[in-house]
Amino acid sequence: MPNINQAFREIVCKIVYYGPGSGGKTTNLQVVHGHIPSDYRGDLVSLATEQDRTLFFDFLPVDVGEVKGYKTKFQLYTVPGQVYYNATRKLVLRNVDGVVFVADSQETRYQDSIDSFRNLADNLRELGLDMDEVPIVLQYNKRDLPDSVSIEKLEATFNPHGRLKSFEAVAVDGDGVRDTLREMCALVLKRLKEQTHIESDEEMVESRLLGSGDQGQTSEASSETKDESRRPLRVGPPIEMQQTSKVYWRGMGVGTGIITISSMQNERGETEYTLSSNHRILGFNRHFVRTLRFVGEERLKVGVVEVDHYVLQDSGSDDNHIPISAYIEKTPAQRAYLAYAGMLGEIRFAPEGGELVI
Ligand SMILES: Nc1nc2c(ncn2[C@@H]2O[C@H](COP(=O)(O)OP(=O)(O)O)[C@@H](O)[C@H]2O)c(=O)[nH]1
Ligand SMILES: [Mg+2]
Questions:
Q1: Ligand 1 pocket test target in 16, 27, 47, 177 with most atoms within 8 Å of CB
Q2: What structural domains and CATH numbers belong to the chain?
Q3: At what angle do helices 25-35 and 177-196 cross, to 10 degrees?
Q4: Which ligand has the minimum distance to the alpha carbon of residue 47?
Q5: pLDDT at residue 11, rounded to an integer
Q6: Whose CA is nearest to atom 15 of ligand 1?
Q7: In a 10 Å sphere around its CB, with 0-12 CB exposed, 13-18 middle and 19+ buried, how is residue 51 labelled?
Q8: Rounded distance, CA 325 to CA 88, Å?
Q9: What average pLDDT score do residues 158-180 get?
């Protein structure tokens, strides 16, 4: 169900590109980004390192205009494909309105695609979502490569009942990318209408989300955005906070300590956030310092109310550690929540008495 904020009269539809590592999810977003008229698109934020562009996730916000007095936004995400980033994937999947599953057509990647599809089903189930109810569109990508699995075999595997729409794609050339998203968008708007009776101007939404239909520009546009897409947002809000936090591992309280976050401007004029954590966890003192960057804002549930949060992420300069996300309330109190995928399950830090639903 799209996130509808009555006070702000805003609807946010969240679409997640899911699939095995290197299947072409980020490429899909780059192509989409290249086509959206610049007035309506936000920056494509790719949290990736030079060495491994598949490690983190990408985020592309698109303003698709007013629908019956509601400002409507689409948020496109990708998930990291690596098996061990499941906690991040689950985090990204929360409150999803539609999933584009990007399968890698190569024979050598067939099993990885199957594993990823199963993992999608497992994660949706764990989040209380039913695979048969969440709109899903299939994309068989990399059709240009010689060792491709046949479409018949892919369909038999991923779409045995023929219930899902599927598209062949060569995402690097832009082929099939917008057809996939057009279908996804139609499914999401259809559900929005069924659930809220808010009817949207599908044509307008499509024209803004998919831009003009000039396929000839696609590959140019996507290579143009490639470098830009690696940038987190350069400038963020000032944050100075300190709090006592509780540490939770898989929902269990395992420690307490202090978190501080402070912001500064570096010599390039970018905002850098220094996160420092001192905690006693299961009897051990743990201390870490990280540099974070601003990646956007998100409205999240704290207890029973929804609160706007700034979202910070690791700057991604060091590819050997597990990325941390920080959510800081956009209130004078600036209470902070941290989440990261520990080796044995997700670890969260929450202010005393705080309970964040992410
Ligand atoms: N040959 C070919 N390569 C592709 C295609 N789509 C993406 N790639 C390449 O596959 C690699 C991984 O793509 P990426 O979008 O980063 O995958 P992600 O991990 O799913 O986000 C990149 O080098 C892309 O240029 C395609 O359709 N054909
Ligand atoms: Mg990627």
A1: 27
A2: 3-228 (3.40.50.300), 240-357 (2.40.128)
A3: 80
A4: 2
A5: 81
A6: 24
A7: exposed
A8: 9
A9: 95
